[in-house]
Amino acid sequence: MTERRKSEEKAGFTSGLTPLQRMEIDACTLCGECLRNCPVQAVTNRPEISPPEKIRMFREFIKGTEGLKSRLFGPGRPDRRLLEDFTKALFECTTCGACGQNCTVGIFTQRLWPMLRKEMVKKGLGPIGPQADMPEAVRTTGNPYKKPAEERYSPWFPEDVGVSAKADIAYYAGCTGAYEAQPMVRGDVGVLGRIGEPFTMLPPEDEVCCGFPLFITGQHEMLEDLTKRLVGAYKSRGVKVLVCSCPCCVNIMARDWPVFYGKELPFKIRHITQFVADSIRAGRVAIKKELKERIIYHDPCYLSRGAGIIEEPRAVLRSIPGVELLEFDLHGSNSRCCGAGGAARKVFHENAIAMARLTIDEAVEKKADKLILSCPACYAKVNEAMEGYDKKVQIVDIMELVAGLI
Amino acid sequence: MGIFLSISVYAVYLYFGLRLISHALIWFRASGGLVTAGVPRAKSTCSTRAVMLLDVFSFRRLFEVDTPLWFGSWTFHLCFFLVAMSHLRYFLEPVPGCIACVQPFGIAAGYVLPLSLLYILTVRLAAGRKRYVSYSNYFILILILLISVSGIMLRLFFRPDLIGIKAFIIGMLGFSPGVLPESPAFLVHFILLLLLVPYLPFHIFTAPLVTMEARRRDDALRTVMHD
Measured between alpha carbons, how far is residue A251 from residues A211, A246, A297, A314, B192 in Å? Predict the structure, then answer.
């Protein structure tokens, strides 16, 4: 056993958690209310991988290594099988935060689960499958998909849109958008171009991963470096507002970048729907073309629950003349994960597809003409779930739709 | 028997105290992690603090998630508090006026307490098998139910020597245990309570803090994303 592993075992299970997170683990009343809208429960129906059961198991690990008995008689060694089961349950979660939304105490599960994943990574039990390749991919290519930087913008960037070298506004395309949901980022840039305010972007080799996939899989070594590189690059371009359409990026930028950066960011973070809704309200842009269709909007977990952005996408959609906006039964801060969250979509593929199909089913059932998304991961996953499925609905990103109607 | 019971009481409370200290060490040990709950903390104004306390005392989050369960849970906690307050008369001499004033409410709450527990049990069981079942929660719930029922039995059918009980308890608090009152019903009630103490969940200490922090976090997020 290496010295590092020995010291990590000695450190127990809470060395990377904040005091508040340790309290959160004890604050769970095991009431089970969090299972209400859990998407993993919806498709697996296995309470043994539910949030309260994970907390109960983790308490056992803490008890065995840091509890009263272990303080008096020395720490025990948790059962390896139990640790593996726990790790699998932890990584099977989409970290959508529906459990936290329904938590009767208010535990911030969207941050607690990634931090517990980090503890398991330190013990050598995680990450799972292809997630382990992410740090190396980000280190060598700047993105978790191992795609070349020169392909980051070129396949989709509209020729008629100009980018300034320096501007108050910057646009961050994000890795998933740039490589896996290109109609979405093309729409973003198209709308920004129509609004007409100058905006800047980093060169493709400098627009590296925001750190979210590493954060969510508990692999935190590079996060400080990535954050400082990106913040420094935008700062040097005089940016005051950083606009992004990926809810996961927005989430880590707004919530965690200040922690990794060490102080308040020198610019504000805004989701593209916030920026466009403001522009419509201020009269800088207007949606002129009519769309006589029934559309249904899916709230991405990290946008609604994670960043509290619920009204702005709806404001944008309601400004489309002729449109009828429908709602999912679970919407807003209670929205159901599409299955793409938590970096689980490529490991627990069947769960992810089943979850995405629940979204498709409801959109079809409500006779929506279009299913509107505003997250590249949702976009990629729901499109994937549509393949070979008998129920069909047209999937459109919100900015892809708006760009075509301005 | 009195001595044996007294020693058991000391042992149980010593165990609970040590367990609490051990957990407090886990809670407050310096964090080795970079990441906190994210989002800089918002400044707490008086109104924010008032809302945070209201969240805690009204169980707002439970109300929003499961109103039928909230009704039972809130009633149970209120009754438990009133009963505990009224029981302070056995620990204090002279009995403070405020404790004396609580007595009628404490007695009424004593009757409502088992009803609220039965209601919670019914709501939980009616929720169906799909939901998570915590056996430790059921154990505690049934234990408190038995304690409250035995308390009602003491009041209605097996009235013990209250003066003797108070003398025994005050003696125990002063580490000079006296004679145990001869009341098997009291003994059952007392032993059941002793059984409960080691199983008291620590969420009674941490949940209010986490609930307050959740409010602060929501306010901070609004500032960061919408300011």
Answer: 11, 9, 20, 19, 49
